[in-house]
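Can't paste images in this forum, so I'm doing it all in text. The chain is below; anyone willing to post the predicted structure tokens underneath?
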Amino acid sequence: MPDISIAVTDLRIGHFVKLPGSWKDHPFLFSSFRIKDEEQLQIIRNLGLAQVTIDPYRSTGNIPEPVTGEVVSATPSEDVAPAPAAPADPIRQQQQDLRRSMRFADRQFSNALSPLRESLGQLNLKPDEGLATVAQLIRTAAAHLTQTEEPIGLQLVRSVQQGDVLLLHSLNTAYIAMLMAREAGWSPLEIENAGLAALVHDIGELKIPTQISRKRVELTKSEINFMRMHVQYGFDQLSQLKAFSPEIRQAVLQHQERLDGSGYPNGLKGEQIGALARLISVADYYEEQLHPRSATRPGQPNQVVASLFKKADIWFDGGYIKLLIKVLGIYPPGSLVRLSDDTLALVMASDPQTPLKPIVLPYERGRVSEGVDLIPLQQDERQISGLCKLEELSQAQHDFFNLGKHFCYYYTS
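Text version of the structure:
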């Protein structure tokens, strides 16, 4: 039985769907699969498709009537010449591709956030199920990374609603750490381990009273000491559950150690700190400093990078700092920049092939950011002439860029 095209509203659990495009255009690992639950069904319905192709032979349940009664043939008929396609506007097409990439990143991050919240909430009652969900999240993201041969950068995600800071921090750190591990030439299993270690590195904070862990002003000395216990709490919990590999559990314990011995909990120095823990500590510090819990304003990417450089080979491994810079680009996503024509812009995505020419969102007075064209500087005459400070922005500019939200990241190629 040949494939048929049906309205997306007629799609049901059990239908074997064939989505257009590749995995870059949707959050699923494969483009052809049988819909197994309501969550997958809703995700497909939210992709913006009017109709979708299904394979009736491999589907279960009722098969609806095809759209306009037409069948999607596996091989086009040679007797009917296809209608000539209308010439595409290359600029419009490019903008559609850029916006599609942004929507994909938004979906991927949001789709990971909800099950992560559930899995961490299940650790006490159903630890096996919770940890299995965590592992699957990372395996899916790691598979995308290892299956893509082309250079990959980071895409700024701005649509995520404000959520638990610990969840946002953990997921961001995991994505950054996996991309660093990929750039370091680590094996697929090592990339997966980097993601798992980063995702659970602060899991011990769940045992810290929320009046301390979520305190938004400076902590007292006793509160600082209590917070520092989170590394031991996390290590003990994962060890008790025999969760993940010993290397991952060690990284959870050691990610706050520093090369000069000034870290905690054991004051380890240099090579006493495992390689995975040294990589995680760089990604963790960068993300944490972007959103310091006791500060009223978030840190700016260039300031955090400058702070890291000052601590290279003192607190942090200089080699991993260089990897982070390679992943982030010279102007990391979230940077406020001034272009050579004096346009104010927000860096939306790093381009690993042209680190000085990222993709930016320009400020346009009186408009909303969703309606403004992005600028891929690689194809534009303008250049970045300098960085801007948050305090230099008007309230209108601040609102346009939606700077009150947590900076979140996903991959872009």
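The first strand starts at residue 3 and ends at 7. The chain has two domains: 3-75, 95-327.
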